[in-house]
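As a representative case, the lines below give one protein's residues and fold tokens.
***
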Amino acid sequence: MSLDAVFARNKRRVVGLAAKILGSSDAEDAYQDAVIRALEAAGTFAPKDDRQADTWFYSIALNVCRNRLQYAGRECRGGTVRLPEGVEEMLPARDGESEEVKALKGALNRLPPDQSEILRKMYNDNLSHREIAAELGIAEGAARVRLHRAMEALRRLMKKEVA
């Protein structure tokens, strides 16, 4: 299994992820950074199959995006602001947002990071239960349970937001 094949197979998905998190202008740069990090780390990981290699590269790309967000936060805000994880940064801020969108953003912001992450994987990244399970290194059934629990937590928070 060659790294070139892993990069080619995942380019569209990784660039799409980066565009959602960072914006389209930085997506290709983030992809290139992920390729460089993967090449640097290639000797420390021996994937058993293509799926494991894809998950490994996607995780590197996600960390590159997170690092870029954190760096941008420190650069712009003197290092004192913690950028929200999960879905919050995926939703564009607009003037005149509906109360429902504001409530959803508030509820997503208050979810534990693992719950907001699994919701993002399902609804923003459009991953299947199987793909989520592979990325998290858990059984598909466990991914379904975690997603269900995250949705229930989100529903409870939304009821509080709207009330």
The domain at 87-163 is CATH 1.10.10.10 (Arc Repressor Mutant, subunit A). The chain has seven helices and no strands.
